[in-house]
Amino acid sequence: LGAVVDRSSRRITFMASTEGGVEIEKVAEETPEKIIKVEVDPLVGLQPFQAREVAFALGLKDKQIGQFVKIMTAAYQAFVENDFALFEINPLSVRENGEILCVDAKVGIDSNALYRLPKVAALRDKSQENERELKASEFDLNYVALEGNIGCMVNGAGLA
Predict the structure, then answer these.
(1) What domains can be seen in the chain, in order of their start residue?
(2) Are 120 and 94 spatial neighbours (Cβ–Cβ below 8 Å)?
(3) For residue range 113-151, what is the model confidence (pLDDT) as tens digits?
(4) Which residues are 86's β-sheet partners?
């Protein structure tokens, strides 16, 4: 289960697939029909029926449907409240007793939103960042490390 901001539709889009252990890009290329997509209307947010539709499409049954709706709703809330650019639960598995388990998750945070998210900003682990990119960020600059000895300094979008 994952969510991204779809720039073309300008909406949060959830994607899910039963094809575990495979990169979603590979599934999209080889068997796109195995990816379930739901666009969320920003005026009304994620609706329970949308999460149920995904649960049914994934083949979930009985109590699992309610569990999945809670998981997807919580994922949507976290996505919106924290200005995520990406939210992914992978894998989302079903235990022997039928209970749904979120085994691992990752998020991508819009760094331009950190100023209004002090709790999220406090989680930043600067030791995991490129030293030069970190130094540039102190001056509100974006630095992209490239190979070689030539650099570009550009101003504005699309000028490089």
Answers:
(1) 2-111 (3.30.470.20)
(2) no
(3) 888 999 988 988 889 888 888 898 888 787 877 888 877
(4) 4, 108
The residues pairing with 16 across neighbouring beta strands, listed in sequence order, are: 36
Quick one: which of 9, 75, 67 has its CA closest to 46?
Answer: 75
- Strand 2-6 versus strand 105-109 pairing type: unpaired
CA distances from 43 to 49, 77, 87 (A): 16, 14, 20
Rounded to whole angstroms, the Cα distance separating 135 from 100 reads 42
Predicted TM-score (pTM) of this structure: 0.81
DSSP conformation letters of 23-69: -HHHHHHH-GGGEEEEEEPTTT---HHHHHHHHHHTT--THHHHHHH
Q: Mean pLDDT, the chain, as a whole number? A: 89
